[in-house]
Specification:
mainly beta; globular
């Protein structure tokens, strides 16, 4: 992940879908000079760690199409 995007995610109030080694994480802080991020697993918030930005992968947003509603149209979330 590039530094700018990691900083945007860390500053955003919206939780982004980011993985580190396949595990969903939260980015707390980005250290631009070291190219690292302070993160924690969403399942283990007490286990903070510093990782290389290259280890972080942002997942694409997924759009889910719901079945047809009572009005004959589909709902998207």
């Amino acid at each position: 992940m590039n530094i700018q995007r990691a900083q945007e995610i860390a500053a955003s109030p919206v939780l982004a879908d980011v993985l580190c080694n396949g595990v969903p994480i939260y980015i707390q802080h980005v250290d631009e000079s070291k190219g690292t991020a302070r993160i924690y697993s969403l399942d283990e918030p007490e286990n903070e760690q510093e990782v290389a930005l290259a280890d972080l992968i942002e997942q694409e947003s997924r759009q889910i199409i719901l079945p047809v509603n009572n009005y004959g149209t589909t709902d998207t979330i």
